[in-house]
């Protein structure tokens, strides 16, 4: 797993706040695209969401590679459990926040 950094609150930052607002709009657009079953719009809006998220990480000095490593590790763990016939479920024996 990616190393856990000490939780330090961020100072207010106008750029990050504006990006966060745009991220919220992009996320809402993705939800709407799913609801109306608009596949091309979902692909387009999802890409915009990820780009905005990476900009926020950069504004907050978070290495995007660490986030992608964490996602890869969660997927690897889920695949490993499935390969062993273990179905992770909420409240079950193999409950984990590391599963996608």
Please, could you describe this protein's structure?
The protein has about 100 residues and is mainly α. The protein folds into 2 domains: about 15-60; about 65-100. The protein is built from 3 helices and no strands. The radius of gyration is 17 Å and the shape is flat. The model has no long low-confidence stretch (mean pLDDT about 80).
Briefly characterize the structure:
This protein has 100 residues and is mainly alpha-helical. The chain has three helices and no strands. Helix content is 63%, strand content 0%.
Which key features would you list for this structure?
100 residues; mainly alpha
> What's the pLDDT, averaged over the residues?
82
Count of helix runs: 3
Structural class: mainly alpha
Strand content: under 5%
Please provide the count of β strands: 0
Oligomer state equals single chain
The percent of residues in helical segments reads: 55-70%
Radius of gyration from the CA trace? Answer: 17 Å
Q: So what's the overall shape?
A: flat
**What is the distance, rounded to the nearest whole angstrom, between the alpha carbons of the first and last residues?**
14 Å
Query: Uncertain segments of ≥5 residues (pLDDT<50)?
Result: none
Give the ordered list of helices and strands: HHH
Q: Could you say how many structural domains there are in total?
A: 2
| Largest sheet, strands/sense/barrel | none
Please describe the topology of this protein.
Layout: H1 14-35, H2 39-59, H3 64-83
Helix pairs in contact: 1-2
């Amino acid at each position: 797993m990616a190393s856990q950094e000490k939780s330090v609150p961020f100072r207010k930052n106008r750029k990050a706040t504006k990006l966060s607002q745009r991220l919220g709009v992009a996320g809402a657009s993705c939800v709407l695209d799913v609801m109306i079953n608009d596949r091309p719009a979902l692909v387009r809006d999802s890409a915009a969401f990820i780009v905005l998220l990476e900009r926020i990480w950069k504004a907050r000095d978070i290495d995007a590679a660490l986030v992608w490593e964490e996602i890869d590790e969660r997927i690897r763990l889920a695949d490993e459990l499935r390969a062993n016939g273990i179905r992770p479920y909420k409240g079950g024996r193999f409950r984990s926040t590391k599963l996608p």
